[in-house]
Amino acid sequence: MQENSEYWKHFDYSNADKKSTAFKELTKADKGVITVFFSEFNRLVDYYHSSIAKITLPKEVELKLAKTILETHTVDDLNTGLRVILTNDYCNGRTSGRKAVAKPNWFFKEDVFNRAIKGELD
User: Fold this and answer.
1) Where in the sequence is the domain holding 9, given as residue range(s)?
2) What is the pLDDT along the chain (122 residues), one digit of tens a residue?
3) Are the C-beta atoms of residues 63 and 103 closer than 8 Å to each other?
4) Number of domains composing the chain
């Protein structure tokens, strides 16, 4: 796991909407776990040369969805889901049926993430 200080280059809660309900509901522990999760996501974007944008300023919906995914999945499921999403041609907008790159508020939805884990995103 990366140190949080290393990650602040990519993600900084100081820019988040601190008035948002999702941000206010996050505990310090939640913020730490979500920070590590987004850090790993951003690292994997580079690793897999994905077209999907890194998460630098999470929206309220992304914070809520990420928290739900982290609470309901194992580490192995998280690794599998992120790998599938970041390498999938459909999510990266590289198919004839989809030219747009997927956004976190779509692929972090519980049903979509579960389909990614099962390899059913096409």
Assistant:
1) 4-118
2) 333 344 334 444 555 555 556 666 777 777 788 888 898 999 999 999 999 999 987 887 888 888 889 889 998 999 999 999 999 999 999 988 888 999 988 999 999 999 999 989 87
3) no
4) 1
